[in-house]
Amino acid sequence: MISVIAVKAGLAGAFILGFVLQLGGLHAWVERKQSALMQDRIGANRAYIRLPWKWAAPINWLLRPLNVLGLFHPVADAVKMFTKEDFIPANADRFLHTLAPFLSMFFALVAFAGIPFGDRLVLSGQVIDLQIAKIDIALLYVFAMMSLGVYGVILAGFSSKNNYAILGSLRASAQMISYEIALGISIIGLVMLYGTLDLQEMVRAQGRYLFGFLPMWGIFLQPVAFFVFMAAALAETKRIPFDLPEGESEIVGYFVEYSGMKFGIFFMVDFLETVLISCLLTTLFLGGWQVPFLSPSGFYFPWGGSVPVNNLVYALMGVGSFSLKVIFFCWLFMTIRWTLPRFRYDQLMKLGWKVLFPIALANVAVTALVMAVFFPKGW
Amino acid sequence: MIRKRELTFWENLYLPEIFRGVYITSVHFFRNLGIHTAHRFGLMKDVQAGVTFQYPENPRPLAPRFRSRHRLTVREEGTPRCVGCMLCETVCPAKCITIVAGEHPDPNVEKYPVKFDIDLGVCVYCGYCVEVCPEDAIRMDTNILDVAAYTRDEMKLDIHELMDPKLRKATKKCDLKFPHKCSFHKEEMTGDWKQVYNKDRKQITEEGWKRLRELTSKGH
User: Rounded to an integer, what distance in angstroms lies between the CA atom of residue A250 and that of residue A163?
Assistant: First the structure.
């Protein structure tokens, strides 16, 4: 029993530390390099580690690709942020000002507990679910944590005693609340189709096939919901084209009074939320850890033929499939962030309330109608 | 004036236009990614991926008429071509040039600059000094752009740096042969005409050599 708990804790730690935080940290590098490539630039490549001693030549040779790729820039950033002065404005509420970034970080990280990143792993007779916390209402849990994340933003603006910060946090709260409605309603269709709020079960349900060959992923069943969810989720991450709470070029945003690593945490939370949204989109719409035509015993292709697969390999393929899909969405969000300009505030509200919300509602109605008319007894 | 155009229905759908934008940026992304990767393996060297210049190593090519840091052109024997006519100092709109003229030992040359300072912190790089110079003694063709210093005094160039563009910093030792006021030696006179004309005295007439002796006996 204890060994199972230890293995579970180890897996959870590996997922959070090895995947989520690494991906979040790498985002700082990807943001620079991808934007550079998209704009025909070369990107940051000046942070390097080169050992001065002669005997260190092999180490230098190994470090060279990292130097060339500029992979030490996130490290340099972290060192810079940790060594900078941690400034708290004179009139600010010291306690809340300090609490806000940690609150943001906490809720962003805690939400990952509900994400299933693989199917069951059987190790020496013990069945381990590749999900940090087995929650029956994981979907609601993740959404709750995402909504609570806005507290960090509001407190940051509120406790700074800075008009721009308050303006930023006001915008953030208005925007997050507006888009959370579209976000929540857009997935009701999926919940109706799969008949569960458990994300693990939802992913399992996506393992079936439409017409015998098309995986029953959310994106094929609910394409409209996919786009509504993606737009609303992008707004949740507070990045361009929905970066009004930050508005780097005009009000700097809710974290204007933050410096050092506290600012770094807000920066990191942006990336973590992108990863979280990518995880959610993968889980809900791209079949999570499902690999097309792969079942626990092996591949079964619709055109006949099968390849048997070992249980451990099956679990690893699931985790790999999940990671690849998440990385794809991270890339897509980064591409969108460097492609689109920012919305104006009225356009933002119009898009949220007058476009996404009605579409999500209509999607729910149409889904319900189709289900009631064509599948009265369920799937 | 830019006329605002009404968006068409297709554009108002947002999604198709977003796809178009993402397609354009993605094409650049994958093209550059491929070319950069190929460059690493030594392939496709003739195709450029980034349009940017890696500045300190590969500076941008400059136009021939580009006005960069000044230099004083030098005669064969190592003295400045400048004849101390003060035209550049007079024409300078920023008043950044300071010249102190002295008497040249060569009777064919009337004067020479004992002191020639340019304060680059004040200079506006208009190039009038180059245009006005009758002797082609001052030019702005060193292609030095990164004129930066920690103090204002370091922005002041004296005759050492102006005559030798390779000399990027204030010199410690004075190696100019002719007598001049050396600001790095607290405006003291250093150098001697004798050192200049020792090897090739034919250039100087008898009269000139006499005047040179007079000058040196006065303590120059």
Answer: 13
